[in-house]
Amino acid sequence: MPKSLDEYILVKPGDTAVIKLNEFVLLPKRKFKSNEDIRYYFWFKSKVFKSYPFAKLAATRLDSLNARLSRIKSKSKRKRYTRKIQDYVEGEFADQIKKMTTTEGRILIKLIHRQTGKTAFHNIKGLRSGWNAFWYNTTANIFKLSLKDEYHPESINEDYLIEDVLQRAFLENKLVPQKSKLDFDFSEIAAKKRGEIDVEDYKRMFAKQRKRNSRKPQKKD
User: Fold this and answer.
1) In whole angstroms, what separates CA 201 from the centre of its chain?
2) Under DSSP, is residue 78 helix (H, G, I), strand (E, B) or coil?
3) Are 88 and 96 in contact (CB under 8 A)?
4) Over the stretch 12-63, which tens digit does the pLDDT of each residue have?
5) Are 161 and 154 in contact (CB under 8 A)?
6) Handedness of CA 186, 192, 195, 200 (dihedral sign)
7) Would you say residue 221 has pLDDT above 70?
8) Residue 147 in contact with residue 136, Cβ under 8 Å?
9) Cα 121 to Cα 128: distance, rounded to the nearest angstrom
């Protein structure tokens, strides 16, 4: 008998054919409260699409770094190689964060946790001293961000919206999939949500922004 029956397909004599299909996921239809909510969702979707490639690239670089370091025995060579990766992260990746909006930066930080299984803070701390990680965290907080932010689509609405955008983009081949290193089952989460989309936080955010702008004195011609 085989060790694993999953490797075999048993067919009884006759003209019956058995075809093994790849697994696919069906997500519930999105439910919006208004046309205005649809616009906010697609605004948010554009932010996720902009942030995801950088998170995917960061995860790939960090995986490559860890795999390479595991094969380097010399401390001096490990240090030199780590410095090269640090230069990449700080020279290229950090520059991209500075160009992002607050929402895009927050999504990116959350996606880094999704892609690597570690917060952006702990990824940086692994490369450099705790003092440098603290410096990065302080810098991020200037833009009201925290590199310690985690990703919890099962309990945080914004994270659920991010994952909803990602999973639908994966199914439609609009983004290249990269499996999360966190332990959650989005199909179960989506089933509980029943496709309901909540964008109230963003509506309030823009309402406050419009209110602040209306209070600014108008320039005279």
Assistant:
1) 19
2) helix
3) no
4) 665 555 556 555 567 899 999 999 999 999 999 999 999 999 899 888 888 8
5) no
6) negative
7) no
8) yes
9) 10
Residue 196's φ and ψ, nearest 5 degrees, are -75, 130
Percent share of the chain, pLDDT over 90:
46
Using the structure block, give the residue that is written with the tokens 């659920």: 160
Other C-beta atoms lying within 10 Å of the C-beta of residue 137: 18
If you search the block for the tokens 């519930």, which residue do you land on?
28
Q: Where do we find the tokens 């060579």?
A: 77
Nearest C-alpha neighbor of 24 from the set 168, 189, 193: 168
Site of tokens 């810098």? 139
User: Average pLDDT in the 118-126 region?
Assistant: 83
Instruction: Report whether 183 contacts 155 (CB < 8 A).
Output: no
> What pTM, to 2 d.p., does this model score?
0.80
Q: Are 113 and 183 in contact (CB under 8 A)?
A: no
C-alpha 186 chain-centroid distance: 13
- The answer to whether 110 and 166 have CB atoms below 8 angstroms apart is no
Distance between CA atoms of residues 163 and 177, nearest Å: 12
Are the CB atoms for 136 and 121 separated by under 8 Å?
A: yes
Percent helix, strand and coil across the chain, each to the nearest 5: 65, 0, 35
Backbone angles phi, psi at 218, to 5 degrees: -80, 135
